[in-house]
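Ligand: manganese (II) ion. Inputs:
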Amino acid sequence: MRLTTFEHNETTSIGALVGDEIVDLCAADKTLPACMIGFIAGGAASLEAAGKAVESGEHRLPAGDLTIKAPVSNPEKVLCVGLNYADHAKESGMEPPPEPVMFSKFTSAIIGPGETIVLPEESEEPDYEVELVIVIGEGGRHISEADAMDHVFGYTVGHDVSARDWQLRKPGGQWLMGKTFDTFAPIGPAIVTSDEISDPHNLGIRLRLNGETLQNSNTSQLIFKSEELVAYISQVVTLRPGDLIFTGTPPGVGFARKPPVFLKPGDTAECEIDEIGTLSNPVGASGQ
Ligand code: MN
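Predicted complex:
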């Protein structure tokens, strides 16, 4: 199922994308919460109710008439993995790490498809990174690799917008500030449940800036795959329904190019992953 959060007549609801229509799941089944985290926490019962709503053929709205929001806007955690593609580590001048390099973003960075990435006055080097994003289903702590995929609800497309000057050169030696400016975590347009993805670790992944392809790889190149990431992270924190894990970006980012390419107002960034979708966001300047 392809699940969206959308607005219609100033009401927020959860929808299933079917062709160019969205099935309003909360209208079809009043027991379903109008909140993606609640829907995910409902587990198999939510998916069963959603399946019945889709089969009924009712409560369908043209997707083009709706405002598609970030599929999850308020996860408890947004975890991110750095240097998770060997070629990207190399272009960044770093060794592929022996275990995942973790950082985080705050939920204030999350925006949905079509919303503007606002470039802050405080950065001269705003960069792009397309990423496969894991959406956690059933939560847990100390999840084994063998059980990990039972805790993956699905996947979405993410854009790990990164202020390189803040990430790499500011004092402190950590990445948080450069990664979590407001609007620096676009996600969407839909969460695709795991059963609809043939192999999450063999999907074409690419980023186009103003129509030009600047990143073009495959999730088969991930160093640490979903199972390892869920197991690794859950050693430390309890994962909860709706938590997001940005899994890292392939090569081709802007700061590693000669000459460098940075985001500028008026750009359009499109992040695309096969079988999951295309996340498109305009880029603007703060104060505009
Ligand atoms: Mn990243």
